[in-house]
Design brief:
The complex is a heterodimer of chains A (about 700) and B (about 300). Chain A has about 700 residues and is of the alpha+beta class. Chain A contains 27 helices and 14 strands. Chain B has a 6-stranded mixed sheet, sandwiched between helices. Chain B has a 5-stranded antiparallel sheet with strand order 8-7-11-10-9, sandwiched between helices. In chain B, helix 6 crosses helix 8 and helix 7 runs antiparallel to helix 9. Classes of the chains: A alpha+beta (about 700), B alpha/beta (about 300). Chain A: Pfam families: NPR2.
């Protein structure tokens, strides 16, 4: 299918005591295997769990065996043990794979995981579960001593109820967060069947809890400190995670294995979920704070009512990912397993997170950016657009595609479709990107086309010749020979407009559709359009006397006679004294004069004058100027008057805008533009 | 002159917090916001003009530690002037801490055997007051035993009191070249001024560099206490857009003058003779400035 094959997906994070580590991987053993991993995690971990500066950026690591692409994210929040959670969902490919199509997928997954974490602590719960499963419970809390709530007496920490460090309360937390103190002493861990099998599955000996309590002097002081909102308890920062120690519950009837740690079940439901199925497994104890119980002083106590943790509060619909993660922590594992399967098999996937949210991913091939689209270009479709469009397409696109017929320019399409031209252009760019259309120029009989080197291809490619004949012939008419067509193509040359060319070659006799004839050549690349660029040559004076520089003083010095300068100088005053001096009229004359750097050599050099010879009697020149100005005064900024070039047009007369563009922009025909530009003899034309 | 200082210790033991307080003008409360150090954070601290402390704050997570002793061993442990190892007094897993500590010592022994080693028993504020001495002494004994044949200099520290300044002053003191010369000049200065005591501080960190005592005050902790107090005051001043310049404290028993001495140092002069006018002392200080500037320049010329 053209997309690279995913070799592995793994999720790694920064563990507060162990450092960067891989928590989930699929397929199993691809990263964590001791003997033959795809890639050695330790050697690349500094780019997967990097310094903060590399976070929130796409980072690709090439190793001798494979390519790993990830988007590390650093979520800062004081609820985390080290004030931030850093994670990276990395995708592994073969070292030579072309992975540009996966880049948006990697970014999106990172965004999704970040959002999941913010909304419902998806990641931190998974992390906790994964880490306990790995037997890393002890190291989870570097200050694990604080797990004993101050309300508990050390006596409660007996081996038989080794879970004395539970923080399950049977009462609702008080608002000011002094939750822990409401925990009745000796409340053991909760279990459905009443059996207290709550020792942490990592095999920590019950005695470990006594170590906990032996340190209680310091604990209680720190706890006291942390509970008292007034203190600045340094313990507060280490609160998170801590209270989870030793917590466990046995099966809750939703598929838990007995004795497995299910932190999620004990910790309250994700607080921000509003009664959606995410909360369905757990009850939703009223909890105002967004974070579950392992928080610091400020009223976070979202401790669930023990007995109801186990029973479901709502009837459950089909278990979604969130449900799964709540109960047995396999959410992330399932997620990445499904990801790799679907992306490799179908190049797209849809993973429901809960009844409201789904992860939608699709691989799109990446192509180079399309060339910019201009209003004056004409799109021709190369695929059957009508067949492809359906009601799900973007509305603007649907409207626009109807008018793509190889004749309408982009601007015209926008007009017909009644969409804004910018949007029409964007639609074209999209279609161009996917190769649905190609752009040609506006077909007019005044166009000039010329032949390119690629013409030679035609002589060799028989299939192309056949295609040409078929395309070019008028329907239901006798086709001319290819040789004739070829010779006609070759007769197109610089300087000959189509109109004339048709006459010269008696095209009418050959049953050829001229438009298709031309467009075939342009599309196939052996004809090109010769554009006409008008350029206003400021160095070409109307008369030598008119070549006077902007400053009146220098004008005086250059002018052969003082009189012209004075008249010119007075011209602005004439203009300004006009009854209705529009800004256009006022500026145009000064424009003329200010932009006329006169040198005698220039005078000599540019002798294509409207008014004849080099030297013009002074008398004539001021007249001429006055005449122009009078015109200007009479019909200010009226481009159709033919007597004056509007400034908007004038500024485009720099040899960079061709006729097609100008006509499209100003909405006039070629003939009108010709007429208008003819009014100023300084305007030259460049054909290229 | 560059001196490499390694700051190592278990994850979460307080290395970055200490560094931030001493060198980055954090107050103790601000350190709560700090994140974990990923791998090694390098910082260059300019000290006394020409001395640059090249501080290597090494993240203490297991994955990183393993790395330091394995693939990065030479890179980390060569050319070290000072190793500061931080122990969290509350740590549960003392054996593991010791294991890493000893690996560090081994690496130092092979790569920088002349390095000075400071062991900071940190977070002492979390220990009950009446237990502190006992616990500290136990730890020190253990450390010194385990560190043989290397000699280590232990300190007990906490970011919440002046003990932090004491430890770091000593560390920095050990790095300053020719500090004895400085002290002899201070002695001279003290004699001329008839001061009870003269203390020299580094300007940015307010760590004590040197002192000259003619009349002992009796409180052995006075230096770090003053460092702490003045540093906090300096920070408070800067918070209100002011910048601390100098201070004079007068009391029936003494007069204390704190003012800048050179571009990099501050001096505190304690006078207990009430007949000596402030102006005289201040004038002495201003005259001494040039002398000490020259001295400072010469100190680092080698």
């Amino acid at each position: 299918m053209g997309f690279p094959r995913l070799l592995s997906i793994f999720y790694c994070t920064f563990h507060p005591t162990q450092g960067p580590k891989v928590l989930y991987e699929v397929p199993e053993g691809s990263i964590l295997s001791k003997t033959s991993p795809l890639v050695d995690f330790d050697s690349i971990s500094e780019y997967l769990i990097p310094k903060v500066e590399l976070c929130a950026k796409l980072v690709t690591i090439s190793t001798p065996t494979c390519k790993v692409i990830g988007y590390p994210i650093n979520l800062e929040h004081k609820k985390f043990q080290r004030n931030a959670l850093m994670f990276n969902l990395a995708f592994v490919f073969d070292k030579d794979a072309e992975i540009s199509s996966y880049e948006p997928v990697v970014r999106k997954m990172a965004r999704v995981l970040k959002a999941l974490e913010k909304e419902s602590e998806f990641l931190s719960r998974q992390t906790r579960l994964a880490m306990t499963d790995n037997g890393a419970l002890a190291s989870l809390n570097s200050t694990s001593s604080i797990s004993v709530p101050s309300g508990m007496s050390p006596a409660a920490a007996t081996p038989s109820t080794s879970s004395s460090t539970t923080t399950i309360a049977t009462q609702q937390p008080t608002a000011n967060g002094q939750v822990l103190e409401t925990i009745p002493e000796g409340v053991s861990n909760l279990s459905i069947n009443g059996a207290n099998k709550s020792d942490p599955t990592n095999g920590q000996p019950p005695g470990s809890t006594t170590t906990t309590s032996s340190a209680s002097p310091s604990i209680s002081s720190t706890l006291a400190a942390s509970i008292d909102p007034a203190t600045n308890g340094s313990a507060a920062a280490t609160f998170p995670f801590v209270s989870q120690e030793g917590l466990s519950t046995t099966g809750s009837g939703t598929g838990l294995t007995p004795g497995s740690i299910t932190y999620a079940a004990i910790v309250s439901s994700p607080p921000s979920m509003s009664g959606s199925s995410i909360g369905s497994v757990l009850t939703a104890p009223p909890s105002s704070s967004p974070f579950p119980l392992s928080r610091s002083t400020s009223g976070s106590g979202s401790i669930s009512n023990g007995s109801t943790v186990v029973t479901k509060a709502k009837p459950q619909t089909a278990p979604s990912l969130m449900d799964l993660l709540q109960t047995d922590g396999s959410g992330m594992q399932n997620l990445i397993e499904q990801l790799i399967e679907d992306l490799n098999s179908y190049c797209e996937c849809q993973i429901p997170i809960d009844t409201a949210n789904t992860i939608n991913l699709k691989l799109f091939p990446t192509y180079p950016n399309p060339a910019p689209v201009y209003d004056y270009q004409v799109p021709i479709s190369t695929v059957n657009l009508e067949a492809l469009t359906d009601v799900n397409w973007d509305m603007t696109m649907q409207r626009v595609t109807g008018y793509i017929n190889g004749v309408n320019s982009v601007k015209r399409i926008a007009e017909y479709a009644d969409v804004e031209t910018g949007l029409a252009r964007m639609c074209m760019e999209h279609l161009l990107y996917y190769g649905c259309i190609i752009m040609v120029d506006l077909f007019q009989f005044k166009n000039i086309y010329a032949v390119k080197m690629e013409m030679m291809r035609l002589t060799e490619d028989v299939a192309l010749q056949y295609e040409c004949v078929v395309y070019v012939t008028l329907p239901d008419m006798h086709a001319p020979s290819f040789a004739k067509i070829f010779s006609l193509y070759c007769s197109l040359q610089y300087g000959v407009v189509l109109q004339d060319w048709i006459e010269q070659n008696q095209i009418a006799d050959y049953n050829i559709d001229v438009r298709r004839f031309i467009s075939f050549g342009v599309i196939k690349g052996f004809l090109y359009r010769v554009h006409k660029y008008p350029i206003l040559d400021y160095y070409d004076p109307v008369t030598p006397g008119s070549v006077i520089s902007s400053a009146p003083s220098s004008a005086k010095s250059h002018a052969p006679q003082p009189a012209p300068s004075s008249t010119i100088v007075s011209a602005p005053s004439l203009a300004t004294a006009a009854i209705t001096p529009s800004t256009a009229t006022a500026t145009v004359p000064t424009d003329d004069m200010s932009s006329r750097p006169g040198t005698p050599s220039a005078i000599a050099a540019n002798q294509k004058k409207m008014y004849g010879d080099t030297l013009v009697p002074t008398g004539q020149q001021p007249y001429q100027h006055q005449a122009l100005q009078q015109h200007q005064q009479m019909s200010p900024s009226d481009s159709s008057s033919g007597g004056m070039i509007p400034p908007a047009l004038k500024k485009r007369l720099n040899g960079q805008h061709h006729y097609d563009e100008l006509c499209t922009h100003f909405g006039c025909s070629v003939r009108d533009l010709d007429k208008l530009l003819a009014t100023d003899s300084r305007i030259k034309f460049i054909y290229r | 002159m560059k001196k490499k200082v390694l700051l190592m210790g278990k994850s979460g033991s307080g290395k970055t917090s200490m560094r931030s307080i001493i060198f980055s003008n954090y107050i103790a409360r601000d350190t709560r916001r700090l994140g974990a150090t990923i791998d090694v954070e390098h910082s260059h601290v300019r000290f006394l003009g020409n001395l640059v402390l090249n501080l290597w704050d090494c993240g203490g997570q297991e994955a990183f530690m393993e790395n330091y002793f394995a693939s990065q061993r030479d890179h980390i442990f060569k050319n070290v002037e000072v190793l500061i190892y931080v122990f969290d007094v509350e740590s549960r897993d003392v054996e593991k801490d010791m294991h890493y500590y000893q690996s560090c010592l081994e690496a130092i022994l092979t790569n920088s055997k002349d390095a000075k080693i400071f062991c900071l028993i940190h977070k002492m504020d979390l220990v009950q007051e009446d237990q502190r001495d006992k616990i500290y002494n136990e730890r020190v004994l253990e450390l010194q035993t385990r560190s043989l044949p290397l000699q280590v200099i232990p300190f007990r520290t906490s970011i919440w009191d002046e003990t932090l300044y004491k430890a770091w002053s000593s560390i920095v003191y050990s790095l300053i070249p020719n500090v004895q010369l400085l002290e002899s000049h201070l002695d001279n200065f003290a004699k001329i001024c008839e001061a009870d005591e003269i203390v020299l501080f580094e300007r940015m960190t307010f760590l004590v560099i040197a002192h000259s005592t003619r009349v002992d005050n009796g409180d052995v902790h006075r230096f770090e206490k003053i460092s702490n107090i003045i540093k906090q005051f300096k920070l408070s001043c800067s918070r209100t857009q002011g910048s601390f310049q100098s201070m004079e404290v007068r009391h029936s028993n003494f007069a204390g003058f704190i003012d800048y001495l050179t571009g990099n140092t501050y001096v505190m002069v304690i006078m207990s003779d009430p007949t000596i006018q402030s102006a005289a002392t201040l004038m002495n200080i201003s005259i001494a400035r040039k002398h000490f500037e020259k001295l400072e320049g010469a100190q680092f010329s080698k």
